[in-house]
């Protein structure tokens, strides 16, 4: 619906921005404005300002700017009409009525919602009555607490053919409305209508407003099929658009910057009960483009949690095919596969919230899952098969519409393919033993190129490895910082050689096939790739247990919590600053070593100036490192993980 500008202006005039923002952000007056900590980014120093006179807020840390409507949209995921309707209701501003056709449809939807609400109350009451004994035993078996049953309004559909139908007729509801709401089934042969849900535990499905619009029913008898039954598509309910628990998860997801997606509503309820509030579920339908867009409104990188069996991995692979064309800068997905055939419900029952979050912490980026899908078990023992695999990745990355993301994926996979082809040829020459196919990690044999790294540079070794590892893991960040990176000399010659080869891959081989150029890369590059970044590890024919980038994550543990790309970018520039600072310290040491009896005033002034600049940069580096550590704590807390005393958040170990 379009709202007249005069109506929007009246709402703005009656409701100061500071009043709406102040419900979420602690504000303090600062002259004519209010200041507070950004609700969009973790920070210690306020960079968020509200000006009631001008009617807007502005966040310097994120660049976000807007009025009262935009604030609700940004912080709670509301659509513009939802934000307008909520604030208009608060201040008593009457909104214009929709046109006659839309008004009629809205009345019909409201009427169907009323019918669903009456059905929900009937099911809730039936669960409490004597006929609900079996359903109550089932919820006890699932370890669902009374407060959880109440929160999710769970109920019971009696086994009788028309128990709900009789109840609603007694309330004055006609059968056509019950059919339209998906509550009754009307046989084609003219027999009487009957209840769709019978002898089932009932879970109401609610829309973004919290209205009951449909139901999911879990069979209580093993003879009843299917085990899970959802309402059919109705005027109110569209499976491909709906996220179960979306209205509850929205605020938590916005506060935490993260959301978990599970397969079933009982899984979502169990995870929610365990204390993970930002959890939603799809409703027994394939992942759709609408699901993708709705999830990105909740968080930029949702974690999709599947069972680790073949069915779960297959579902993840199908989801990836839907997601690839939609990928855009700053938005992606991660995938967590649960171990031992467990589903989320079983995992939280056996290990609680911590066990579930530990598995979420092991989630793999979409790019890694796609790589595994295409390479595990794939034979590349001939030039033709190598070329076919390369073409497959070219075709897949070509589906990504966002040019910048597509370029990043192409660089990532060209790098990995070059490593994979090199491993394969070494294997054919007897350079390594055993494995499981395309993803095997080579085992160096005596006489292999030695890339052992000295201890003498201490901290700088670890920082250089983090920087180089980040370039491999986040090609888009390498591309953004490429000029500065090339201008900085690495302290270790092998690191410098690795950086140069990575630069060549990124800039010189765009029009060549991987199979054409990989053999010309310095062999030390591939040995260092394992040491600096951490390639996939396998143990004979066993399933891979350690994924790419593990060495990087060991040195920089915050990466295990899927921080925003903007935060990772800040880390990269921070560590580049440290390398530059080390060069300045070396220059100062050299200047001191050259000082003799013939030292001039100019020499003294240059040394003093350099010393002061180093001191200033050290202070700035320490301040920024503290800020990044504080942000890391917030990221971990948002992910649901506390920090044990003494646990480093921003380690940069060798």
Description:
The chain is of the alpha+beta class. The protein is built from 26 helices and 16 strands. A five-stranded antiparallel sheet has the order 1-2-3-4-5. A five-stranded mixed sheet has the order 13-12-14-15-16, sandwiched between helices. It has a four-stranded antiparallel sheet with strand order 6-9-10-11, covered by helices on one side. The two termini are 58 Å apart. The model is unreliable at 430-457, 538-545 and 642-654 (pLDDT under 50).
Write a brief structural summary.
By secondary structure, the chain is an alpha+beta fold. A five-stranded antiparallel sheet has the order 1-2-3-4-5. Strands 13-12-14-15-16 form a five-stranded mixed sheet, with helices on both faces.
Descriptive terms for the model:
single chain, 654 residues, alpha+beta, DNA Primase, Chain A, DNA primase DNAg catalytic core, N-terminal domain, Dna Topoisomerase Vi A Subunit, Chain: A, domain 2, 5 domains, five-stranded mixed sheet, 52% helix, 9% strand, disordered C terminus, DNA-binding
Produce the secondary structure layout:
Blueprint: H1 5-14, H2 17-21, E1 28-30, E2 33-36, E3 48-51, E4 56-59, E5 65-66, H3 68-76, H4 80-91, H5 100-128, H6 133-141, H7 146-152, E6 155-157, H8 163-170, H9 175-180, E7 184-185, E8 194-195, E9 200-206, E10 212-219, E11 228-230, H10 246-256, E12 260-262, H11 265-274, E13 279-281, H12 289-298, E14 303-307, H13 310-323, E15 334-338, H14 344-360, E16 364-365, H15 366-375, H16 383-398, H17 403-428, H18 459-473, H19 475-480, H20 482-486, H21 493-507, H22 514-517, H23 524-533, H24 550-555, H25 565-594, H26 601-638
Parallel strand pairs: 12-13, 12-14, 14-15
Antiparallel strand pairs: 1-2, 2-3, 3-4, 4-5, 6-9, 7-8, 9-10, 10-11, 15-16
Protein name: DNA primase
EC number: 2.7.7.101
Family: Belongs to the DnaG primase family.
